[in-house]
Amino acid sequence: MRKQIVLVASLLAGGLLAQAQTQTWDPDGNSISDGGAGTWDLATGNWMTGATWVNGSDAFFGTGSYNVTLGTGVVVHDLSIAEGAGTVNIQSAVDDTALTVAGSSTWNLGGNTLHMVNTTPDTRLSMTSGETLTVTGGGTFNTGERPNDGTTGLWDVNGATLDFQADVLIGNQRSIGEFALVKLGANSTFINQRNAHQTFNNNWEFGGGTITFQNNWANNGNITVNGTVSGYADEFVIDMATPTSGNRLVYLNNSAAYTAGTNRIAEAVVQLNADHGLSSSVLVLGGVSGKNSYLNMNGHDQSTRGISNDIGNTREIRNNAAVTTSTLTVDVEAGNSFTYSANFNGAGVINLVKTGDGTQVIQRASGHTSALDTLSVEGGELVWNVGGSGNSGTVNVGINGTLSGSGILNGATTVAGNLMPGNSPGTLTLNDALTLESTATLTLEITGTDAGLYDVLLNDGGDTLTAGGTLVLDTTGYTAALNDTFTVFENWGGFSGGFDGISGTDLGGGMSFDTSNLLVDGTLTVVPEPGTLGMLVAMGGGLIWIRRVFMV
C-alpha cells in the first residue's frame, strides 16, 4: 500500500517552516473572542491567553465588531470569522503596510464583513504568484475604498488568484485588479469602489447563478475591462448606479469567453471596444424604474440569442461610431420568442440580422431615432411592428426566413422566403419596392371584409411590386359572399412578374376568388364556383358548361 503524505507548511517570522496553528483574537483578555480593538503585530499579546502572533498561523475572530490595527511583518494563513452579524476592520498603522498571506489559503467570512481599510493609511495584501486566496462563507469582502494617492497602495498579488465564493466583493483596480484572475462564485456581486475611472487588466471567471457588476461612487466611476471574462452565469447583470448617480460606462475591450443565459444592462452604458464583448446570450436592457440603459456597439459586432427590454427610462442599442457599421445578429433558438420595444440610435448605422428558428419581435410605435442600414431575416421569424418612419433600411428575407408584422419598412424589400403581412391579420407598409423571388411564399390572411380583418401590403405610392413564387390565401374563419372585394395590394405604382402558383382560392359553397385583377389593381373578388365561373345553359334540352379559369 502506498501512503501519500501531504505537508502543509507556513512561513514563520524567523524563516522556519511549521504546520499552521489557530490563534483566536482576544484583545481584552477575557478568554472570549467577542469584538474589540487592538494591534495585530508580532509583539502585542492580543490573542487568546495573551499570546503574541505566530507568523503563518490561522486567525480566528468570534462574533462582534473588531477594529484591528495592522503592524509590520504579519503573515497569516487561513482566516475565519464566527457566524453572526459582525465586522472585522483591518487598517495598517503605517501607510502601505501589507498583510502577507502564507501559501494558498481560505478565508471564511461566516456571513460577516471583512474590511481591508484603504483610506489613510492604506492597507495592502501580499501573496506569492501562483497561490490562491479562497474567500467563502457568504458575507462581504471589502478590499478598500481607494488608495490615498495615485502611486502607492497597490496590492502585491501579481500572478495570484482570488477565488471569491462569498456574496459581495468590493474593491478597485489597485486591489482586486492586481490579481491575475478573479473568480466570482455563484450569485456574487462585484462593486467597483472608486470615484475615478478604473482599468482592470486581470482576467475574470464566472461561477454560475447571477453575477452582478455594480458601482459604489456617485461620480466618474467608470470601468474598463481589459482582461478575458470566462466561465458561466445564468444572468450577468451590469448595474452601475448609486443612489445619487446616473449612468456609468463599462468598456469591454476583449471578446467574451464566458457563456450566460442572459446579459442584462440594468443601469449603465456598456461600450464594446472589441467584437462580441458580451457573450452571445439573450440581451435585456433595463430593470430599474426610471433609469437608463445603453449598449454602445461602437463600430463592433455583437451576437445575441434574442433582444428584449425591461422597465426603465431610456433604453437604446446604438452605434456611436459615425464611420463604422456595426452588425447585431439575433440568433433566437427554436421555441423562443423575444420582444424589443426600445430604441435604436447613434451617429453610426447598425445592420440587424435575424437567424435561428425562433421569433424576434421589434416594435416601437414612434419608430427609431436612427435607421437600421439593413434588415436581414436569414432564419426563423422577425415580426416588424415599427411605426414612425419605419427605420428598416434595405430588407432581405432569406429562403429560410419569415417576415411578418404591421409596421413600416422604408427600404427596398426582397423576399426569397416567407412574407406574412400583419399580426393576424393586418397591414404591412412598404415605402419602397417589393420583390418576391421564385422561392418566396406570400401568405395573405382573410377573415372578414372590414378593414383590419384581412392582410394588406400597402405602398406609399409610386413603387413596383414584383410578384413571384407562391401566393397562399388563408381564409380560415371567413364566410364568403358573392362580390366581396379585397384590396390586398394597395396604392402600388405598378406591378410586374407573376405568381407561379396560387392556393386557397376555393372558398366552398360554389364560390372562389377571382385573382385576375390582383396584379392590375391589387384586388381579389368572390365569384361563383371554385376556380371557374360555371354557367348552366339549356339549349334544346342539352347542357353546355362554359368554363372560365382565373390565373395571374
Automatic annotation (TrEMBL):
It comes from Pontiella desulfatans. Keywords: Signal. This is PEP-CTERM protein-sorting domain-containing protein. Residues 1-20 form the signal peptide. InterPro entries: Ice-binding_C (IPR013424).
